[in-house]
Amino acid sequence: MLVAAGVLALSAGIAAGDCRAPALTARIPAASARQGAIVAVTLESDVALARASIAWGGREAAMEKGADGRLFRALLGVDFEGATGARTARFEVEGLCRDRHSLTREIGVVSGHFPFQKLKVAPAYVEPPASELDRIREDHEKVARVWESGDAGRRWDGPFQLPVEAPARDNFGSRRVFNGKPRSSHEGMDLAAPAGAPVTAPGPGRVALAEELYFSGGTVILDHGAGLFTLYFHLSRLDVRAGQTIGEGQSIGAVGATGRATGPHLHWGARVHRARVNPLGLLKLPSWPLTPSENSPTSQSN
Ligand SMILES: [Zn+2]
């Protein structure tokens, strides 16, 4: 009955308390985004709302509500292999009278211009032996379950740090040819750190996975909440276990060359609502939580 009353008030144009159509403003930092980009979007309403969500890239994600109920924020991930061209972000809101409204905005996705890369690794990492196929399938299933297990609540409140102090290789998204055979594109970027260098959590999180996998070797996946995960591959040592909560800067392991690696380095990956994105974008995350005075996604206010 509440729903019917709300709709009636709206259709009659009566401002019954907060039961009127909100004026919605979507703030998107730029009209276009590169494949692999992380985009922080804000939705502002002139009246308090019950909730807001955003549909993007075939998925719908809840937006985090600010203290006064008028500001909402979410991260969007532009998958690095997603189509280029104009794509629609659809904001859906529910008012305090359960009235529903929506707003759409187009974001132009532009090519990441990812390079080709030829690599040489041990043959078993290009054509795995039959005896390892079950294990590889189990590894895939374990990782797939991680994406289902994410915590709804955001754990971070500002830009991330690098997980290791080392130069970044410009190889995010590269189309890779291993030992002359085309293989999957590079779902992360590599940091050229020496074997044994400490790897630290770039932001607060919960350890979603910490174990040895066939291709990625010593592997840690951190769940930062609100749809954001980061991944660490080829570690020679794991300092954390699944389920553990960790703070920014806490050690998660050591750089190594385990799994399909050409030599010691840290492979760093990130996912935003399943989209595979360049983790370097996390170094420029805006500060959270939301405050009513904040009116720009790039605002540094606390
Ligand atoms: Zn890598």
Structure description:
This protein has 302 residues and is mainly β. The chain contains two helices and 22 strands. Strands 13, 15, 16, 17, 19, 21 and 22 form a seven-stranded antiparallel beta sheet that branches. Strands 2-9-8-4-5 form a five-stranded mixed beta sheet, with no helix packed on it. It has a four-stranded antiparallel beta sheet with strand order 1-3-7-6, with no helix packed on it. A hairpin with a 2-residue loop joins strand 21 and strand 22. The protein is globular, with a radius of gyration of 22 Å. Bound molecules: zinc ion. Zinc ion (ZN) binds next to loops.
List keywords for this structure.
302 residues, mainly beta, seven-stranded antiparallel beta sheet, disordered C terminus, binds zinc ion
- Basic shape: globular
Biggest beta sheet attributes:
7 strands, antiparallel
Portion of residues in beta strands equals 35-45%
Give the bound compounds: zinc ion
Kindly state the number of beta strands.
Answer: 22
Level of helix content? under 10%
Q: In angstroms, what is the radius of gyration?
A: 22 Å
Mean pLDDT: 89
What structural category do the secondary elements indicate? mainly beta
- Please report the distance between the alpha carbons of the first and last residues: 41 Å
Question: Which assembly state applies to the chains in this document?
Answer: single chain
- The SSE string, one letter per element, is HEEEEEEEEEEHEEEEEEEEEEEE
Low-confidence stretches at least 5 residues in length (pLDDT < 50)? Answer: 1-16, 293-302
Helical segment count: 2
